[in-house]
Fold each of these.
Amino acid sequence: MIEWGASGVTLGIETSCDETAAAVVIGGGDIRSSVVASQVDVHATFGGVVPELASRAHLEVLTVVVQRALEEAGLTFQAPEVPAIDAVAATVGPGLVGSLLVGVSEAKALALAWGLPFVGVNHLEGHLFAALLDHRDLPWPLVVLLVSGGHTVLISMEGPGRYRQLGQTLDDAAGEAFDKVARFLGLGYPGGPAIEAAAASGDPRAFAFPRAMLDEGLDLSFSGLKTAVVHAVRRSPEASNADVAASFQQAVVDVLVAKALRGAEDVGAGGLCLAGGVAANEFLRASLSAACEELRLPVYVPSLAMCTDNAAMVAAAGWFQLRQRGPSPLDTGAQPNLRLPLLP
Ligand code: KG4
Ligand code: ZN
């Protein structure tokens, strides 16, 4: 847990993609409630997230999710009373614009009605905070491998709010590759957990899939790997999904671990940290941990709930941001292509 003095209570709201989430966090690190309503059932029949359906589902459930997060945190109140919180934070981007609009509108309206500051949070910064929520005394710089459905970036974090980008994917995000390959294999949505489950009984050496750019710098590329999987399956239609999934997962993890270790070495990092939905992958967690142990490099792996989208990370990042950069204006809009704020 990062300590940053005063212990304000923040309500966080997250609606950037296909999870509707609200959470109450004290002082940027003490999670009092974290409610996540998944839309998996809404999108499963389509094999992926349908943006229009995602926004509608957020609109239907968000207020109830907020109500439950307040109740679970013991913050019941009777209007016109105001709940005992100090700020309302919501993800403003990056993400699906229609989904973001729902959370941003609700958060700004609550902030106005309750006379509280509103904080617009960067979803990627939220993931970085989620990774750090469970830990104290972090060694800076910390190299963070942020691997989600929309992003794959390698960050050198010099402290909360101080980020340098070391590398990024030049095409697909790692999670996107998992989702596309799962869809191609008919394993369903969301793809990451489906591939991981199929891979458990497969042979990771069955197919020699490419490890793109393994020896070149810190950028990554996954679109060639996805194409290689498609070609291999067309060439060997008898191949088992388990073998294909295991070989694919091994190729992704080999590249991610190699790049993370090289990034850590380049900046003389005090430790390595995982963040984002793909960080929920047990094989990635175990592989990175083993590699770091061998090098005696401290490794920080967040709890599973803090890897995938949630609002505790938004509240934590929001509280930090409020103290460092102040509140966001009430005319803040959704910013679907928002980038992580980097050091000059
Ligand atoms: O961070 P996240 O919840 O949402 C975004 O911000 O994108 O990440 C979702 C991504 C999806 O692509 C999903 O397939 C992937 O994380 N994912 C996994 C696993 N669990 C979720 N990928 C690999 N293995 C998993 N166990
Ligand atoms: Zn995310």
Amino acid sequence: MIVLGIETSCDETAVALVDDSYNILAQRLTRQIEHERWGGVVPETASRAHLELLDTAIRYVLLDASLIPAQLSGIAVTTGPGLAGALWVGAAFADGFSLASGVPIIPVHHLEAHLWSALFVDKTIATPFLALLVSGGHTLLIRVNAYRNYEIIGTTRDDAAGEAFDKAARLLELGFPGGPAIANAAHRVKKNQRLPKLPIADLSPSFDFSFSGLKSALKRAVDGHPEFSPEAWAASFETAAIESLLKPVMRYWQANPKLPLIIGGGVAANQLLRKRLTETAEKLKTRFFATPIEYCTDNGAMIALAGVLSLEHGFQNSEQPVTIHPRFPISQLTAHDS
Ligand code: KG4
Ligand code: ZN
């Protein structure tokens, strides 16, 4: 079984081919850098770029794997959540390709794709497990009881983790996307350099997250303390944001140490987060699986993989043309499809 994955929910135009052993046969990814000068993704620009890039990208991966469309078992495409116009481009393309080739379409939930990407590091990961999904738009701690049985343990009350990094980077004029910009700047801080203090959110006894207080505190503190460099602020912000993220995760994990933890989504590429969770897993004598760094941020392979899993579990798409869902809580997957 080989599935083509198409991802156009935001500013990555990405396609890939994945087989039923979860091997990536070919892939192509273009991160649209034209958004950088605006400090955020411009939806209309993103849609146009997807339209220009998609056709060639798909031809490229098929050629690369020496396959013809009829050899595919499915065309997996992100139908939500994401930017409406950007999602439409991928969905319309997938529809046309499916009609022309006779290959069935597989609608994919973007976060479900992030959730299962840890399979790229270990194919034997089995339910139940705990999943921390941290992207530009979402922050979720989920207990994965089984495929499509997703119990939300905690979510953000305000900004998403990645959004917090993006906003902080904009404030510190470090560039876009903010996560890597903040992490790189933090890296330039010298050992023993004095760093400003920023607050760490703690919403216990709930397992929810919050990042807006940290964002406001950063803004106030930067204005009041011009003596600190942007690098120093970046280092303090990274620590405070990652610790705010870890608080509820650690509390739930310590109470349920038998559950392995997986992380996925753009922020899961953060080295400090990965290091802290690796150390905790050792202490708790449990297992931790981090999605490979190159598959944390949006990519086509995770969409193809989600398509393979969907086929393996016998889900069949009944609608063509497919509908897009710009807002699409992952908890609804259980209710709609099972
Ligand atoms: O999953 P993703 O590629 O797109 C969405 O689905 O939103 O995540 C993008 C987010 C951005 O907010 C970006 O700043 C953040 O992931 N990010 C990081 C790092 N790399 C990307 N955040 C913290 N540290 C990183 N190394
Ligand atoms: Zn994503």
Amino acid sequence: MSKSLDTSTTETEQTVTEVIDTVVATTPDVRRAIADHRGQSNSVNPTGDDQLAADLRADELFEQRLLGIDGVATYASEERADVKTTDGRLHVAMDPLDGSSNLEPNSGMGTIFGVYSEQPPTVGTNLLAAGFVIYGPITSMVVARKGSVREYILEDGDKRVVDDDVTVPEDPTVFGFGGGVDSWTDEFQSYAEEVRHELKLRYGGAMVADINQVLTYGGIFSYPGLVSAPDGKLRTLFEGVPIAHIVETAGGASSDGSRSLLDVEPDGLHERVPVHVGNQPLIDRLEAALA
Ligand code: AHG
Ligand code: MN
Ligand code: MN
């Protein structure tokens, strides 16, 4: 019994490594897609967002390459209605291009990925690894796996570690709240009013870049439930849960307003969830404010 368990664990870890290295190897092609495929595609994704040609190109690249890995059984992404399946054991869920509204103004964008032991939709505690790439002045990647968070610089499809133990700093410095002041609930408005006197505003419209601010400087990122959209804007499987896994692994906390995002049991592939991640005390205060 223990033999097969060991083998599957080793195989599982090998597949997780292959997924991470395939994402790394694909980043130069995604950067090229951002430069070359800049138009609209006249189509919308399953959550109703307009799709840029770069969204579709990035999704195509990742789907081909990740499904080409022996141990990968399925590929799911915010850009496609259904899960793509093949033989294998692990399941990859992706936001192939995060913050694509930043393409035109050339602000930060990224890729978010999660490797699950069960086929999505599934709960965040089934994540084996999660990570995000930032296509910024340099290309960087942050990965949470086996209880720690590492940051890498990516060059020419290779990665080198720049921080092998990323942890959310104790003293918070920044905050970033999405959705727009007038769309917030009264409870979130009062919380935001307190926080904005304590911390510095860092909100750039691409989740991965705003999250990296929180990982670097401490603070909180929220895309809250709105009066008009109680589940907010961000997708549970492709954005909220993988990012929550990273921030919690880095010693921070996450919440959908009342509990960890890793405990949210999504019914559908494309559902949305309010996202709050950052220092535990700020998340505790937020949950108290929304209670
Ligand atoms: P995507 O480009 O993958 O749809 O993600 C955009 C998301 C997220 O990256 C960001 O935090 C949020 O949308 C910004 O929303 P607003 O434009 O409403 O601020
Ligand atoms: Mn996207
Ligand atoms: Mn996104």
